[in-house]
Design goal:
This protein is 19% helix and 31% strand. It is elongated, with a radius of gyration of 35 Å. The termini are far apart. The longest helix is centred in the last third of the chain and has 15 residues, at 583-597. By secondary structure, it is α+β, with helices and mostly antiparallel strands. The strands form 13 sheets. Strands 9, 10, 11, 12, 13, 14 and 27 form a 7-stranded mixed beta sheet that branches.
Length: 849
């Protein structure tokens, strides 16, 4: 195509620097990347994702199925239609082969607005403009959104007119998401809640299906007319193939602009049987539809096709709006109503031409007749789907992937439904059309996030002791939103060496860990014991004041949800800890049961996670350290037994609670103080422990220590499908009282003996560490499909054992003790033996020091 000397809606006084695939091309303000490429004579802009065939520009708007490109400047944006990319100075873009490249994005680039209005009008055409003016004249608050770049007329102070704005999703109660292109580098997400939504979204043209219809140079007739009238682009020789008057009008417009045009009208009994060319369109074969073998070759550089029009009903369908088949216009039009929503103009089908429906041109090779240009779905693929017994269009969609691309099959769905109906011998009205889902067009995660990114999206949480960890070389891991010390490497140590050293210190001397991130919930009220009884699998009305009890929570389906230690502070007050990552979820879950199921219970819940700082002191010499720091407490086993606590003071002014609990199996304590004393507590305990050789340890060492004892981590050794019985924790499940999930534990599925159960694994080679998540099999030589019997949940190297070990969930695991299992991996097959999940101090003798 060539650019005419004048005409179009371009600012020809300004030339823009645009780079395409390393080549500089000329463009003007008002151009899109697609029009600039066509003006430069570039027809191939992409390769198809499945077949790797050359693809060109098919449309001039959002219905584009082929010309998706990578934009690298002025902002990085992958997988965007060239027809929607505005030409700006410094634009750099390149073709794609299916997938784009992600790049960093400026935190300040995108933002979000919330807005309420009486009427939201989507669409800036004739019908949309009339609706917006009518609502504004009635004194209503109006939002008017139009995708195009031209400014919208001013409707007054109560109207918000947004050009360059696309409605990408419609949700319950008239919540509509809009994306505004504020500039070439910035987007704004609008969340608009409207009293009434008016959809004036128009209609887009539909292509025709024939052999070679995917060649660059085959374009929608309406797009050819847009490129002529808006961008002053015209071909030398064109063929227009149409089933309706819109195609005829395009042929007349191209002729008037100086192009040599051949009109092929299906209503006159003729069709383009095939498009020909190597890499791009060179000629077409034209023949009577009744005798496709009697074809004549017509040379051309452009083939403009029009198979009819499709009302744009994505937003209507998002709200489960219905459609019906309109035979005269050969398209689906709205049917029924959506509350507080109206559809006007061509989106209703009004003004669309009547069509001589032609779904598949006979005579060409079906394997080269493309129904979905983005997904490379051909007529052959549809025939295969129907031949496999699929009759529902939704099943055909999933079998062939027709309509599952980023364009959601805008130009493909009706053709696919019609051809499938023909193959099935049914009517298209009976087959229907597949659904559409938001977003209407691809929206980057950066735009969805807006400014809510990094610390603005998920704040980094640190304890008051954090600076000490940093100064002592801690390597951190993210647990929930918390930065937790992972391990403390000394010079020359890797992670394995550091963890082995920390584990040895905890088992043979004394070690300290910052445990402040554990979730903490204060539970008060006269019905607190009853409340906990209903939630936890074990009983709390029998827990005496001053004592602690390990507790397990299940969901209503009987699956393990979270765990922690519950302390009874007073007759009407308990203090519960949760996992670090589960703190918010457990509190929310407790509140839900309290407020919606048991509102009669007199209980109040308060999160105190950040109000208390906790230090775990672990190891045979932990009693010596704490005796030095808290001389007023008798730490002997007789005076301070396991699972009890003592309240005291620290620095003579801070309240402190010392609890004798252990997640390592060693003699251990947890000391809690108010947050403003957290750093002082750590420093004080560290100073008291220096003569004893105290060592700081991180979460990896904590994991090793607990796994050696067979203690589970919820979320690592469980996956939402594991019951307490699967974990071998029948002892914590009450046989007499009801609790959330109790009934589900008696279902046949949760009681069957072949469920996955927690076991230990010892690799045959004690130096080999199994991969966490690795699948386990009984027969490594089994031909595919291989039967998987479980997977590794935790795997470590142990200083105490002098070897590697693992925990795993294995089908009927407790019946397989002593049996071999195998883990196929990238480095070969690792053999291991199933053992009990407690590897160290099975008698529990070390707990009391």
């Amino acid at each position: 195509m060539r650019r005419l000397a004048d005409g179009g809606r371009l600012d020809r006084s300004t030339t823009l620097a645009v780079t395409w695939d390393g080549r500089e091309i000329e463009a003007h303000p008002g151009d899109t990347l697609a029009s600039a490429l066509l003006a430069a004579g570039i027809t191939e802009v992409a390769r198809s994702t499945v077949h790797g065939r050359p693809r060109g520009i098919v449309s001039a708007g959002a219905e584009e199925p082929c010309a998706y490109v990578q934009v690298d400047a002025p902002r990085s944006e992958p997988l965007v239609a060239a027809t929607l990319v505005e030409a700006v100075d410094g634009l750099v873009a390149a073709p794609l082969a299916g997938f784009g490249r992600l790049a960093g994005d400026d935190l300040e680039r995108h933002d979000r607005r919330h807005h309420h209005c009486d009427v939201l009008v989507v669409g800036g055409g004739t019908a949309g403009a009339a609706e917006a003016r009518r609502a504004a004249a009635a004194g209503l608050r109006v939002v008017w959104a139009e995708r195009d770049t031209g400014p919208l007329p001013d409707l007054g102070d109560d109207a918000l007119c947004l050009s360059r704005t696309t409605a990408v999703g419609s949700y319950d109660d008239n919540l509509v998401m809009l994306v505004e292109r504020v500039s070439s580098t910035r987007r704004r997400m609008w969340q608009v809640r409207a009293g009434e939504v008016v959809l004036a979204t128009g209609a887009h043209e539909r292509p025709l299906v024939f052999a070679g219809n995917d060649l660059p140079g085959v374009m929608l007739a309406g797009a050819a007319r847009t490129y002529l009238e808006r961008f002053a682009l015209v071909p030398e020789r064109a063929v227009v193939f149409t089933t309706n008057d819109a195609g005829t009008e395009t042929a007349e417009a191209l002729r008037a602009a100086g192009a040599a045009v051949t009109l092929v009208d299906a209503r006159a009994g003729h069709a383009v049987v095939a498009a020909e060319g190597e890499g791009r369109l060179r000629s077409v074969l034209v023949a009577p539809i009744a005798t496709p073998a009697d074809a004549e070759r017509v040379e051309c550089e452009l083939l403009a096709v029009s198979g009819g029009f499709e009302p744009v009903l994505d937003l209507h369908r998002h709200r489960r709006g219905g459609v019906r088949w309109d035979a005269p216009r050969a398209c689906f039009v709205p049917h029924g109503t959506v509350r507080n929503q109206r559809i006007v103009g061509t989106a209703m089908g009004d003004g669309l031409p009547t069509v001589a429906a032609l779904w598949l041109v006979p005579g060409g090779e079906e394997r080269h007749a493309y129904v979905d240009l983005q997904r490379d779905v051909t007529v052959t693929d549809l025939r295969r789907a129907v031949g496999a017994g699929l009759e529902s269009i939704e099943h055909v969609k999933r079998y062939t992937l027709v309509g599952t691309g980023v364009d959601q099959g805008r130009t493909a769905k009706t053709n696919a439904a019609a051809i499938a109906a023909g193959l099935l011998g049914r009517e298209i009205a009976e087959i229907g059309t597949s659904t559409t889902r938001p977003p209407v067009e691809p929206v980057s995660f950066a735009v969805l996030a807006g400014r809510a990114r990094g610390p603005r999206f998920e704040p980094v949480r640190t304890t008051p002791i954090h600076a000490w960890h940093v100064n002592h070389g801690a390597v951190f891991e993210d647990v929930g939103q918390w930065k937790r010390p992972w391990y403390y490497p000394q010079p020359g140590e890797d992670m394995d060496a550091a963890v082995l050293r920390e584990c040895a210190a905890a088992r043979t001397g004394v070690a300290m860990m910052d445990a402040s991130t554990l979730g903490k919930i204060d539970i008060q009220g006269p019905d607190s014991a009853e409340f906990l009884n209903r939630l936890y699998t074990n009983s709390y009305d029998t827990l005496r004041v001053g004592r602690c009890r390990y507790g397990l929570l299940c969901r209503a389906d009987g699956m393990v949800f979270d765990d922690g230690v519950v302390t009874r502070v007073a007759e009407d007050r308990f203090f519960a800890t949760t996992t670090t990552g589960g703190a918010a979820a457990v509190l929310d879950w407790m509140e839900e049961w309290l407020q919606t199921e048991w509102p009669e219970l007199r209980v109040h819940l308060t999160s105190v996670t950040e109000q208390w700082q906790t230090v775990a002191v672990v190891g045979p010499r932990s009693r010596d350290l704490l005796s030095s720091a808290f001389g007023a407490i008798d730490f002997s086993n007789e005076a301070f037994p396991f699972m009890t606590f003592r309240d005291t003071t620290f620095h003579k002014r801070f309240p402190a609670r010392v609890s004798r609990v252990s997640f390592s199996g060693e003699l251990a304590y947890e000391v809690s103080v108010p947050s403003d004393a957290g750093r002082l507590l750590w420093l004080g305990l560290w100073k008291a422990g220096e003569p004893l050789g105290v060592t700081a340890y991180g979460t990896e060492t904590m994991h090793v220590l607990r796994a050696e004892k067979g203690f589970v981590i919820v979320g690592q050794d469980t996956d939402g499908t594991v019951t307490p019985i699967d974990l071998g924790m029948d002892w914590i499940v009450s046989k007499t009282k009801p609790f959330v999930g109790r009934r589900s534990l008696t279902r046949p599925d949760t009681a069957r003996p072949d469920r996955k159960q927690l076991v230990g694994l010892l690799p045959d080679d004690p130096s080999v560490r199994l991969d966490e998540g690795a699948q386990l099999v009984l027969d490594p030589e089994q031909a595919p499909p291989v039967t998987m019997i479980g997977h590794v949940t935790s795997s470590y190297r142990s200083a105490a054992l002098g070897r590697t070990f693992a925990l795993a969930l294995v089908r009927s695991g407790r019946e397989r003790l002593g049996e071999p299992v195998y883990s196929p991996g990238a480095d070969g097959i690792t053999a291991a033996r199933v053992v009990e999940p407690v590897f160290y101090d099975a008698e529990g003798l070390r707990r009391d020091g």
